[in-house]
Amino acid sequence: MLRFVLRRSGSALILMVVVSFVAFMLIFAAGDPAVKLAGEAGSAADAARIRAFYGFDQPIYLQFLHWIGAALHGNLGHSLYFDQPVSAILFDRLGTTLLLGLVSFIFALAISLPLGIAAARWQNTWIDRTALIVAVIGQAMPTFWFALLLVVMFSVIWPILPTSGSETWRHFIMPSVVLGYFAAPAIMRLTRSGMILALETDYVRTARALGIAPRKVLLKYALRNAVIPVVSVSAAQFGYMLAGSVVVESVFAINGAGRLAWESILRSDLPTVQALVLCFSLIYVILTFVADVLNAWLDPRMRLADARA
Questions:
Q1: Which range of residues forms the domain containing residue 172?
Q2: What long-range pairs does 51-57 form, CB within 8 A, spacing at least 24?
Q3: Which of 10, 43, 196, 266 is buried most, with the most CB atoms less than 10 Å from its CB?
């Protein structure tokens, strides 16, 4: 297991370096950043001074090394719009987005796992068809439309939930439902297909023949193997939810990292956008690494295959 973790750690570290370089290059995506900072009224001399001040006249690899060195010390640059250190703004906003993502993820698991297990257990029945309909609606419905629908229903027609902010737990109910329902269909469908395959295996038939309780066969023997691909997809869905918070936080006026990304893009605040892309990407890499380790713990065959590779 230790060898597997070390190999996966090396792969994750390489991926982090690549992601960091891609995030660094974003500042050049809109052209010469010195001209961008000088503004429309700036002259060529102004752009040259800015280029020398920020080091944009140095080779790309030196700029990247300086930037990544500063980032490792917590310096992610200075926001052009907010006129504050990016790390301070990100630290202030990221906690809200992570809390929203965690609550949404729990909600997604709470509806997708039971529906997937029930759909597999009673395959081709009304329960199975109902679960598939729920999944199809979740995949087809845009998050912003669902968010506005909830606002109309539970803040206008029945004014029982707040429409904006993040001060209390009630403010997280509608955003969490929107994000969680967005991620649930993929987890539910994969749980269903995995459980169907697991229920047809020989060891499950043997367990049933030995008279083991059906609930124990379903949850202990079948679910353990069916959940392995679900772990990987769940990690990916959690990353997608953090990225999807850009829309949801804008609709519900939540001051999180997602709304910060939207504001920074609108105002061409490139250092802040750069830091947000780096942060979200690194979180996604870490989630994938954790999912790989958890899958290896659940299924020893993955560790053996990795050792032979």
A1: 91-308
A2: 56/32
A3: 196
